[in-house]
Amino acid sequence: METLKFKTNIKCSGCVATVTPFFNKDNAIENWQVDLLSPERLLKVETSHTSNEIADLMKRAGYTAEEIA
Gene3D superfamilies annotated for this entry (predicted)? Predict the structure, then answer.
């Protein structure tokens, strides 16, 4: 399990509520959170998924995720 970080286009708690079912039902995701106070709307995900798999999950939820170091 590793922690991946992404810049997202999530803007508010309503957006977080939209992606929540996608992340919560995925057994490969241990924990996740979005920092809405960060200008980059930083998403941190503890997962065994690759960054591409997380980006695809976000895309299915209607948002973008760009991995950052």
Answer: 3.30.70.100
